[in-house]
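Hey L., structure's done. Input below.
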Amino acid sequence: MRKYKSHIARKLSSLTGMDESDIGSLIETPPSDDLGDLAFPCFSLAKSLKKAPAAIAGELKGRIEPDEFLERIETKGPYINFFIDKKRLIASVIAEIAGAEENYGGSNEGSGKTIVIEYSSPNIAKPFGIGHLRSTVIGAALKRIYSHLGYSVQGINHLGDWGTQFGKLIYAFKQWGDEARLKENPIEHLYEIYVKIHQWEEEDPGIADATREEFKKLENGDEENTALWERFSDLSRVEFEKIYKMLGVEFDSSPGESFYVDKMPAVEKSLMDLSLLVKSKDATVVDLEKYGMPPALIRKSDDTSLYATRDLAAAIYRKNEFDFHKMIYVVGVAQTLYFNQLFKVLELMGNKWVADCHHASFGWIKLGDEMMSTRKGNIVFLDDVIAKTIEKTKAIIEENSPGLPEPEKVAFEVGVGAVIFADLAYRRDTDISFDWAKMLDFRGYSGPYVQYTHARISSVLRKYGKGVPANCDSDLLKLPEEFAMAKILSRYSDIIDKAAREFEPFHISSYLLELCGVFNTYYQKYKSAEDRILSTDPGATDARISLINAAGIVLRSGLRLLGISAPEMM
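Output:
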């Protein structure tokens, strides 16, 4: 619909003097087909024209003539409703998708602009739990979405490889470290002793002094502690990479917090020169009381650094390195206050570009009614979740599709896709509960349902037995379901734009489910009727094949943006 919106916006702009892009942003899809295909609400013109919105709609409607794009124009209260020429839309959608294939819906709006996205960012020496999934798949999807729109995207894995928790871990390893267990299962062993030291600290608060001292030694370059820290970091990166490979997630860099340690002194000097640093209970802070926020901690009372100091250094480094158009932090909602503090401090330092920094927060993943916590030792390991999902998927496939070629490969693609889609099928700010039955429902609100629809389209194309027609007579596509499908396909670019604008991959997953619903209704109704897809009329068959092939391309493209495979057989 992108070009139709532009066409309408140009007409309205010439009549009202309103900026074309502002009009385009207000054009919407009506809630029902009888209200048109696109609509413009006239509320925004009421003040400047000093008339009621309904009166404005009536006047403008009388000045807009139907043309090759628009079949007719109507009004409904304050709305101008536009009915698109059906034949033209169907023909143009089929041609555009066939020409662009999986690049359909993309644009060059991001040409010459860089987007930095920080996502995943697990802590070194701790397991990659199900709780880390959201940042990982949301961030990876945003990276693909912005790339689809022509941006240069820097995906950064800001690994938690520095901070007081390493004092705890180093102290714990010196107490209970087991070399044999470390070699056998490093992350599991390090996690166990981390939980153990945390429990010990709760029983004996005095232990905290000893763990802080170990971190201070690390910051000061102690040889033994540095060697342990490097070892824990290397072991963790190897384990994380296994998870990322399964999920198909990639990064452009994974520097970790430690990369910014030598850049902190310059930040602290700037804060000092600007008289922003004050002492508070022996700690060094930036006072944010006048902005309705607690102070931002820069240095602890024992002179060790905090992650806020490193994040300030990281933001400034990234701006200097990439001159980003936007920087997006994909981090949980629990850190909302922290990012408000971080952005305020950057602003107080005189960095006007902080307006281009955004916190794309997300809700919790729950296991039943219980939140997952690393410290309490009840985290659910993500690799276990993926393995179990693949196993369950394989059982479903063996029951429903015996003899399927490459069942292991399909089970992997569908199982991993189910895990990813279960996260991206909801808005970021929604808390989600992990539920295998819903994730693996091949007929419901799930990744396997979308993948199965793609496989169904692939099956029809195989039965057709020829290559997709280079040309077809789209005028033969007269069924209401065919226009409905073409209309949804035409909206794909709008959906991608909206997902990018709102940092919300959910819009793509929701769109794919809608497209699947329309196609499956069409398929069930016409797979064996007189107007069946593979009919005795070669012209009509070619046109329908061209349309459903377009649907298959868009499903494949949308799944790819989400990070999910599109099997041709299931």
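Residues 2-84 form a domain with the Gyrase A; domain 2 fold (CATH 3.30.1360.70). The CA atoms of residues 86 and 483 lie 7 Å apart.

-- N.
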